[in-house]
Amino acid sequence: MKYLRQFAIILFISLLGELLRILIPLPIPASVYGLVLMLVALTTGMLKVHQVKAAADFLIEIMPVMFIPAGVGLLDSWPALRSVWIPVVLITLLTTIIVMAVTGQVAQKIIRKGEKKNGKVSH
Predict the structure, then answer these.
(1) SS3 content of the chain, % helix, strand, coil (to 5)
(2) Backbone dihedral region for residue 116 (phi beyond 0: left; psi -120 to 50: alpha; all else: beta)
(3) Are 37 and 23 in contact (CB under 8 A)?
(4) pLDDT, tens digit, 9 for 90 and up, residues 70-96
(5) How far, in Å, CA of 110 to CA of 93, rounded?
(6) What distance in Å separates the CA atoms of residue 14 and residue 32, rounded to the nearest whole number?
(7) What string of DSSP letters covers 40-94?
């Protein structure tokens, strides 16, 4: 029952994201709206981590399975991708590296800020 309730909370926030996408005429995916809503709910205390943690952990564990349809779709689209596969691979690798670097830098800054706040010295 705990999983159902937690999953329902996550689905409700996703639904709110879909509604925001419909109401706000910006080219932003509903999932981004949903993630922002979840972030706001968690940081303001409207939602506690323990209220969604078990379901979120489960969804993260099965995440690789969710990429199978996308992979099959790429294989199905191979005739259209054949002529541009080299630029697609290069752009994918480059953007992956950029995202990893930026994420690492942001994470380090957050960790250092937390250490300074707690009085610890970082290296």
Answers:
(1) 85, 0, 15
(2) alpha
(3) no
(4) 889 888 888 988 899 999 899 999 999
(5) 26
(6) 9
(7) HHHHHTSS-GGGTHHHHHHHHHTHHHHTHHHHHHHHHTHHHHGGGHHHHHHHHHH
